[in-house]
């Protein structure tokens, strides 16, 4: 064991001497490994960071959450002309499902409406995102309040003029004053502020509840009506934990088909979108991005491998005399083999570590410039970069190392003289 530790130390010294004595040649040869590792780990780190950010954005919603609407989140075999004829989800259907469906933890009716300006005295916050929802959405998305409360079922059903403000909206309107109980103007009428959401920051899609306002959907229904195709009404359902999703969805479809009077031979005129499917789609996209990035980066590693092999062939040629002396003094073939193999691995790892260092610098700079979005170089990616570097060194150095180990000691000494 000690002899191999000594061998590793000598190989490390030979690798460092190669860097010192032939700086330009070694630098150019290691450049391929450095660029290859930089490309691979940069791609993996970027995709991992993107995936983490997207899933973090979705973390407030359970993957089992179901969204009923006339649109599909993913590809569908239903032709476009037929989809355009699908009716919107109605408030009456929401009430029916709320009464008839079992194993439901929370259910909500929601409408997408344009941004609006909110005023308080002389202060105005422009283009505030309006969340027109029923009281059940509080439990579906696990909203967190900084102060006050959320509107209840009675206020939701009656369409009471109450409003819950996002953190930034409340801060811009009221500053350090207490907003609870104050009156703000929206849609030309007054709304009482009953709650303020906790600050959550911007997500990857550029949205944030910090810049939103939530109010009972029935207030918005009176303004926009129930036949406005631009509000994209939807019913959001969160099943209870442990419920069989396939069975739950089957029952949900049956209930809605029955309510809409669809015949057995007619297709569903609605879509049951599940967030798990959206999460699977994200995983599929990120996997493809990783695969494409790895293929492109693989060409850089191939060039780097040839560079390491070139260094090792030159190193064998320069140290032919030394190899002959070592073998004449009793050094075995495997000793010579491991000596050059370790040297190749060490050189490749040095190139890989430089690549990882560059990725780290780029991730720090990118995180500073992008603000909320954080590029993260995970320990797994660092380990992967080091392991791939070592593997490149091993593969690239094996042939030069074998050729060195098979040299005849007499011929090696004569050739080196």
Summarize the structure.
This protein has helices spanning 2-21, 23-58, 80-83, 91-100, 137-140, 153-158, 167-174, 217-224, 245-260, 275-318, 320-328, 333-370, 379-405, 409-416, and strands at residues 66-69, 104-112, 116-120, 123-133, 145-148, 162-165, 183-186, 189-197, 212-216, 234-239, 271-274.
Give keywords.
alpha+beta; single chain; 11-stranded mixed sheet; 16% strand; 417 residues; 14 helices; 2 domains
Describe the protein:
The protein is an alpha+beta fold and 417 residues long. The chain has 2 domains: 2-58 and 280-416, no CATH class; 87-269, no CATH class. Helices cover 57% and strands 16% of the residues. The chain is built from 14 helices and 11 strands. It has helices spanning 2-21, 23-58, 80-83, 91-100, 137-140, 153-158, 167-174, 217-224, 245-260, 275-318, 320-328, 333-370, 379-405, 409-416; strands at residues 66-69, 104-112, 116-120, 123-133, 145-148, 162-165, 183-186, 189-197, 212-216, 234-239, 271-274. Strands 1, 2, 3, 4, 5, 6, 7, 8, 9, 10 and 11 form an 11-stranded mixed β-sheet that branches. Strand 3 and strand 4 (123-133) form a beta hairpin. The two termini are 33 Å apart. The model has no long low-confidence stretch (mean pLDDT 80). Keywords: Cell membrane, Membrane, Transmembrane, Transmembrane helix.
């Amino acid at each position: 064991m000690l002899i191999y530790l000594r061998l590793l130390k000598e190989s490390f010294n030979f690798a460092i001497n190669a860097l010192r004595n032939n700086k330009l040649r070694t630098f150019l040869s290691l450049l391929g490994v450095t660029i290859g590792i930089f490309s691979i780990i940069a791609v993996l780190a970027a995709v991992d960071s993107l995936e983490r950010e997207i899933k973090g954005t979705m973390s407030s919603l359970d993957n089992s959450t179901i969204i009923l609407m006339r649109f599909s989140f993913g590809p569908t075999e239903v032709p476009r002309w037929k989809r355009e004829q699908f009716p919107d989800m109605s408030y009456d259907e929401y009430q029916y499902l709320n009464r008839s469906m079992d194993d439901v933890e929370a259910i909500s009716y929601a409408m997408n409406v344009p941004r609006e300006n909110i005023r308080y005295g002389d202060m105005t916050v422009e283009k505030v995102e309006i969340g027109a929802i029923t009281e059940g959405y509080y439990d579906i998305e696990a909203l967190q309040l900084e102060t006050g409360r959320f509107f209840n079922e009675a206020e939701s059903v009656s369409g009471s003029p109450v409003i819950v403000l996002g953190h930034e909206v409340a801060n811009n309107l009221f500053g350090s004053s207490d907003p609870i109980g104050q009156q703000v103007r929206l849609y030309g009428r007054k709304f009482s502020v009953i709650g303020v959401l906790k600050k959550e920051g911007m997500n990857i899609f550029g949205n944030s509840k910090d810049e939103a306002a939530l109010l009972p959907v029935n207030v918005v229904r009176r303004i926009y009506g129930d036949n406005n195709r631009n509000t994209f009404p939807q019913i959001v359902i969160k099943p209870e934990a442990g419920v069989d999703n396939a069975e739950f969805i089957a029952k949900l479809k049956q209930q809605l088909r029955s309510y809409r009077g669809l015949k057995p031979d007619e297709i569903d005129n609605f879509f049951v979108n599940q967030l798990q499917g959206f999460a699977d789609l994200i995983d599929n996209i990120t996997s493809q991005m990783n695969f494409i990035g790895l293929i492109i980066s693989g060409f850089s590693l191939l060039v780097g491998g040839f560079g390491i092999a070139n260094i090792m062939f030159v190193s064998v040629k320069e140290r032919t005399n030394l190899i002959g002396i070592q073998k004449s003094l009793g050094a075995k073939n495997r000793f010579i083999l491991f000596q050059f193999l370790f040297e190749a691995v060490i050189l490749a790892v040095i190139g890989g570590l430089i690549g990882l260092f560059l990725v780290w610098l780029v991730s720090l700079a990118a995180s500073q410039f992008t603000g909320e979005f954080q590029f993260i170089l995970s320990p797994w990616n660092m380990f992967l970069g080091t392991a791939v570097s070592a593997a490149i060194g091993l593969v690239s150095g094996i042939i030069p190392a074998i050729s060195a180990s098979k040299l005849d000691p007499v011929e090696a000494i004569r050739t080196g003289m």
